Structure formats: structure tokens, C-alpha cells
Predict the structure.
Amino acid sequence: MLARLVRESFTRNPRRKILTGAALVVGMAVATATLTIALEVGDRLAREFRNFGANLLVTPHSDTLPVEIGGVDYRPVNEGAYLQEADLGKLKTIFWRHNIEGFTPFLDVPASVAEAGGAVTVIGTWFEHGVPVPDGTTFKTGLSITHPWWKIDGGWFQDGAAECVVGAALAAKHPAEFKIGGTINVVKDDGRGTKIPLTITGIVSTGDAGDNSVLVPLSVAQKLSGHPGEFRSLFVSALTKPADALAERGEMAQNDKNIQLTPTEYDRWFCSPYISSISFQIKTVLPRTDVRAIRRVAETEGRVLLRVSTLLWIVTLAALIAAALAVAATSATTVLERRSEIGVMKALGASNFAVTGLFLLEQLMLAIFGGTVGFIFGAGLAHVLGNSVFGTPATPQFVLVPIVLGLASIVALVGSLIPLRRAAHLRPSLILRGQ
Amino acid sequence: MATVVQIENLRKEFGKVCALDGVSFEIQEGEWIAIMGPSGSGKTTLINILGGLDTPTSGRTIVDGVDVGRLDEAGLTRFRAEKIGFVFQQFHLVSYLTALENVMLAQYFHSTTDEREAQQALERVGLGDRLEHLPTQLSGGEQQRVAVARALINHPKLILADEPTGNLDEANEKIVLDLLRELHTEGRTILMVTHAPSIGSLADRRIDFSHGHLVPQLAPVGSQRR
């Protein structure tokens, strides 16, 4: 009989239910869209931020202080420690290996280039290089991933070839000598190495010290410096999540023995892609190194991610509150319209539980309808928003289906609470007298 | 004959207004009682208290051995479902349910539904061919007959009819009154509120109300007619 009552109520008295259903559909559509984007926004924005370059710098746990000016290491090649190129594949074995988007080693070699009239820093690096990973695969990485904003006029050198690209400022100083297609000869600054002839394939604009340098394949710089298979620094681009209190505690615990994480805290910290936990994991596979977050990039990312996700949560909450208010308004009108029916039911022996149960069941059915249709519309809305904001459509998150249905039920029930309370307290004697 | 209703010194106040003031009377099983009086004399208040829709300020109201004034909300709900059959002047059928479903609704709140029994109840009031009709598709008389079938379906101890023919034309009034007479003949206990002396005279006994008091009755009326 209950099912019959609900069915008949829906089919023969649909006006208010359409309004309630519509309020739930709109509320759930907005909630689905924002939740879908909120779920994806971390990854999406983190990927967008990767266009700003690497966010981690790995250097040897050095025995001498680096002599850096404008990001270029001016130490003589026989000073300081080096990192091993052969170890780089291990970066793709850490717990958050899939969050390591790319990495690029650098080897700065003070050199002499006759065409430039003397001392020039030669920077050995990768543009696109396949790194063998212990699991047998090859990971393609290099400047194209960690430094995507570097602009090249011409083309990049081939990995391992006797080619180079020249910094834009250096090329501007010696336009006749540094032309694309021309050849330069580099030699170690002490003049004791072999002269290496290199073909210029492009002029690069880096916006930093690289503009006054000659960039060569890492293997060429290693040969020039006499340090085969070694490099000085490594830029790592990793997808991370914004730092929170746990991330900060985790980082402090690494540097201060007085601060200790509980085993549960440690597990949560280790299993979250915080910049501090990824740094820690890199250190474990590249021992005797310092891994530093490039704060400017990491903090900006963290702030923006936090603000965007906060905004999305606020919009979701606002949509849910608006839907609950709309449901409350239509429910109040429904109870008012159906007070005679409520009075009759009570006179016939219906308990408050039976009367409110009937209305709650109707609201729950509307919630299922509103949640399902709202999810479909919301997925479409997220698709459009994802396309217009991030350039790629947001994929429907089916994991949200039970959450949206649950939210719709909560909204429908919360919105109906006051009207149902009123229904339960209606006195049949007054209603039946038309009061 | 057993006493179905026993009212002792019943008083009901609405704020400063006294709707019933020291009312006492008894109704025996199988009696048809007409409650009469002008508007505001306390007739409907009495029906509401007897039907468990309202509670008295003081006094005792015993229906089929149950002291209605002592029942809590849940007790009153069960009392209404099990002991009382209501027939209202406005019919009060659920608009989106068919005639059959309206009768089954009373079964549902009482215990379990039995479609066959509900159908028989409607056939009994002459609506066997109107089972699937909505209230809007029925005449006033037919709607009131559905209400009578609904009131009977749980075999109540007491049928409370508040102006059952107040909204009907003459032809339908006759049909409904014939139905009540038939129920009375079967031994049902009926308490009917009416304004019309001609309708009141059909009952076994007439109880007159005035300003919340009983007006002394000189002689039973219905016994002479029967």
C-alpha cells in the first residue's frame, strides 16, 4: 500500500514534485560539476604548474660550497662532488614514481671558446634522453619536460652528438661567430683538454645564466670535464599536493630529531605526494644528496591549489544549501497543500511515523531522481568547464555517483525536516474542520 | 446490552471558552444516537473527543472500555484505527487515490490491506462499478458512500458521523441515510451529528446540546419510529 500511495502521489499530483525534483537536479548538477573538477583540479593544476618548470633541485651532499652565480656553478671541475648518471633510473622506482614527470641533469664546465674570445661556461644537459629504468622500461625526459619555457631558434642538439645550442645573449655578442649551422671549438678552461668541435643547431633563450652559455649534450660536457657518467645537479619536476600541517611536520621530522611522527602519521605523510615526502623518497634512492624544494614554485603552486580547491568546496556547499532551501520551500508548500490528506490519514489511525515516513519516502525517491539526473547534467557541466578552463574535458567521476545520491538524500531530508515536523504536529481535529 | 460509550462530567476548554461543560451520558451497543444543537454548541468537540482526535480538559470518556482521556499520542492513534469509523461532512477522501484505494488506506493504517474485502465493502454501499474511480469522478453521494465503506472496513465499535448528509442533495441524502439505517439494523453503534430534525428523528435517541450543556431529553424518539 505504501508503494501504491507513493506511486499514485507521483503520477496524480506531480506539480510540487517536479519543482522539488528540479531543485535537486540543479543542486546536484552543480555539486557534481564542482566535485568532479575538485577531484581533478589537483592533478590538472599540478600539470599546468609543471609548465613553470622543476620544483625540486638535487645536488650532491657537497664537501665544498658551490660557487654559483646566476644558477651556474663556477667551481673548477676537480672540486666538489658529483652525482652518478647511472643512478637516475632509480627515481622511477620510488613510491610516488608516477608523480615524477621528468628530470634533467646539469653539468657546468668552465671552458674556453676561441670564437667567443675566451672563457664561456659550457652546460651539459639532456633535451630528450631515454633513461633506462630498473624495471626494464625507458623513461624519456630532459629539458623539454623540466624547462618547457626555454625558447629555441633553430633546433635542439641530438643526444650524444657533437652539437650545441648557444645562449641568446652570447650569440648576440658574437653574431658572426655564433650562427646556426656554424661550428665552434670548445676546450677545458685550463687548455689541457682536447678541443671539441661542435655544430651550432640553435640559439636558446633561457631567461637566466644559460643565455650567456653554450649548451651541449651531457655526454659532451662529461667528456670535456673528464667526468664521464657524472653530473653536478638535477632538476626534478614532480606532481605534488599542497603542503598542510602534516607535510610541515614531516619535513621538520626529517631535519630535527626532536620531532617524531607517529607510525600512522608517518604512513600518511609518506603515502601523500607532499613535496617533502617526495624529496625524502628521492634521497633514499640517491643517497649522499641534498634534495631541496624550489620554494618559489612549490609555494605558489600550494597557495593556488589551496585557493582553487577551497573555492570549489565553497561553491559545492553553496549549491547544496541552495538546493536544501528550495526543497524546504517546496516541502513546506506541499505539507500545506496536503494538510487535509494528512488530517484524514491521522483520523484513520496513521501514526506520526507513518505520515512522515510517507513524505520521507517521496523525498527519497525525488532525491534518487534528482541525484541521478543531476549527476548526468553535472558530468556534462564539468566536461564543458574542464574544456573552457583547463583546455581538456573533465572525465566523469563515477565514484561520485553514490556520493551525489547520498548528498541528494541528505539535502532532501534536511530540506524536509521542518515541514515534516510541522506535518507530524498537525492536529487532525483542526484540519478536518478546515482550520 | 453492553455500554459502548460512557461519558462522565466531560469538560473541554479552548482558552477561556468552555466548549463542553459537565456533559454526562451513556450509549448502549447498537444504539443510533443523533446529536443535535446549534452551531458552537459543542457537538463537533464531543465527536472529536469520542473519536480520539482531541483530549478533554477534565472528566472521563470511556469507549469500549478504553478511557480515551488517559491515552497518549500513540495510544490515541491505535484507538482511532481500531475502535472508530469516521464519516465526515466533507467526505475527506484522498484525492489521488481511487475509491478502492481510499478504503484500503484505512486497512493499511489499521493492520494489513485486503483488496477483496475493500471491494466487498464498496459493493455493499452500491459502488461495485466505481472501484477505480477517483473522488473527482464520483458524485457527492458516491463519495460519501466511499467514506462510509472506509469507516466500516475495520469493523469499528463506534461510527462517528459528523453531518454525513450536510453536503448532499436530497436523493443522495436518502441513499446515505438508508445506508446508516441498514448499519443500525445490523447492530452497529452510530453517533451522528446533524442540524436537521428530520434526520435526527431517524435515530433511536436524540441528545441536544446548547452552549456546551446537555438539554434534558423528554422522551426517546427513535423507538417510536421503529
